[in-house]
Sequence to fold (91 residues):
Amino acid sequence: MRLMRLREVSEVYGIPMDSLYRAARAAPGDPHHLPHVRMGAGGTIWTREDWVEEWLMRMRSDAGIPRRRWSTATDLQGELKRLERRLGGGS
Fold:
């Protein structure tokens, strides 16, 4: 088992740091979640190479996971209203 800091993951895989931080902040039940551990006084985020590989497989374009279009609760509420209208359940 090899631990990597997010900076190293970014360099090795070419993934932007903001994408990695967003994935680490996602709730564990969220398919966008990147498993990790926090260690040290600064709460440095570490992840395992195999966790990154598994996360990348989930993020594949053909994996069937809907991509997010929102960054705030207001954006999410708007998306939910659009979905309700599309399904005929909203006003």
In short: The first helix runs from residue 6 to 13. Residues 5 and 12 are 11 Å apart (CA to CA).
